[in-house]
Amino acid sequence: MTSENIAALLSTKQGQIEIAKRPIPTPQADEILVHNKAIAGNPVDWMVRDYGFGITEYPIVLGSDVAGVVEHVGANVTRFKVGDRVLGFAGVLATSKADHGAWQTYTVVKEQAATVLPSAMAFEDAAVFPMAMATSINAFFVQFGLPRPADAHSTIFSPGTECLFIWGGGGAVAASMIQLAKALGFTVYTTASPKHHDRLRRLGAAEVFDYEDANVVNKVLDKVSSAGLHLSHAIDNTSKKDTLLATSEILVRSGGPSSKLVTLLDWPEDMPCPVQKFSFFAFTTFAEHADLAGWFFNDWLAEALAERVIVPAPPVVIVDGGIGSVIKVFDRIKAGVNGVKVVILTVTKVIVVEAQVGPASDKQVPRVKQIPAWVEGPAIDELLDELPDYANVARVDAVGRGECATLAHISASNSMDSSRPHLATSRTAASTQEQRTTFPKYGASGSTNRS
Ligand SMILES: NC(=O)c1ccc[n+]([C@@H]2O[C@H](COP(=O)([O-])OP(=O)(O)OC[C@H]3O[C@@H](n4cnc5c(N)ncnc54)[C@H](OP(=O)(O)O)[C@@H]3O)[C@@H](O)[C@H]2O)c1
User: Fold this and answer.
1) Is 247 near ligand 1, meaning CB less than 6 Å away?
2) Are 374 and 400 spatial neighbours (Cβ–Cβ below 8 Å)?
3) Is 243 in the pocket of ligand 1 (CB under 6 A)?
4) Domain spanning 134-279 has what CATH number?
5) pLDDT, tens digit, for every residue of 288-298?
6) Residue 36 near residue 67 (C-beta atoms within 8 A)
7) Is 196 in the pocket of ligand 1 (CB under 6 A)?
8) 61 near 92, Cβ under 8 Å?
9) How many angstroms separate the alpha carbon of residue 331 from the centre of ligand 1?
10) Rounded distance between C-alpha atoms, residue 376 and residue 407, angstroms
11) Cβ(281) to ligand 1 under 6 A?
12) Quick one: which H or E segment has residue 216?
């Protein structure tokens, strides 16, 4: 356990964010303490920072999406144990407690807001889910009132009998919504920029339409009716006036005025709504619908991830610099992202993928040592000590999956470890230049970018 908690502290309402140490939180009886390895940003992060809504106590730590390792469990926790790899929804927007914010090394998460990860799932990939899935389950099971499926392989509709329209399929929330809707048995129609169309079909959308197409409403209606279906459920992820009008028109013309429309932002008060409209805050799911949240996050999602009914999406962009990059992340999301989730890693991720451990002169049969591992801080030393002195090449993924660098690059890039420059000199006799090689084994989805 690292002994300090580095946090992005927002000191006052609409104030400045500063990186500071704060005490490691203590979980309550129904909570777990997560040592965050990856933290993802959401639009609400910068909105709360800039507009000051929602939070009643300062200083505060914002953020909702974490993935990491369980460090401690509360007295009543039964579903998790120390050492579990988990994703979790950080509930700061509900509680206004800094301990519940994501943007720090350690976050306290409610038991029913966490999911055990498959062993092969990278933390940065897992961090895409908490906010997106909390929003999705509230839309489907609370606002639409749909029944729960028996398990991750069971639908609630016979395929081809019910359809869902999602305006704005390209974003982070939509990637979870599309997959969950497909798993429930919906035929999914959505809109997105053309560059996302193939990706969204792979996630489960039956048809994807360009929202810039002036005839998009008629095209959606034609497809739905040619499939012999009627749309009575829709979600508008964009929730601007023009998209709300278009989405509600599709619903009225297909399913009639009793159709249900979920909006992720409020419907404007000065605009009449021709269908039943619903809006909500995702963070309320855990307090107001704790049983639903626990069923979904503890059981259904764990099974769905393990069996790849649900896969990490959208692609992740990792911003270097750890928690210290929080302002960069917020501002990047504020400027607008297109079909990616912006994530930071709290630790330098080091995976020794290949080290020739034979003597330099022994060119004929270099033995190869493979040590895939997550390591951080002092553990880097321990990992390097496992390699014999004559290890002449060690290619290490210190810069992200699928990219490899030499040990020299590790020490240069390891911002949490700048006190140990010897790593740059003692191990790099044969490889003083940064090398980058693609190792497909560690770039499974090929989806991670860095900036
Ligand atoms: N009520 C809640 O509790 C709740 C929870 C989560 C999120 N939200 C809100 O829901 C929205 C989506 O969240 P997110 O995390 O998914 O955001 P996001 O990933 O930042 O969404 C970006 C996507 O929005 C799409 N988009 C922008 N304008 C569009 C338009 N006119 N028509 C169709 N698509 C458009 C873009 O699609 P292209 O790339 O195809 O252009 C882009 O990929 C945000 O406003 C967020 O604040 C609300």
Assistant:
1) no
2) no
3) yes
4) 3.40.50.720
5) 999 999 999 99
6) yes
7) yes
8) yes
9) 15
10) 14
11) yes
12) helix 216-226
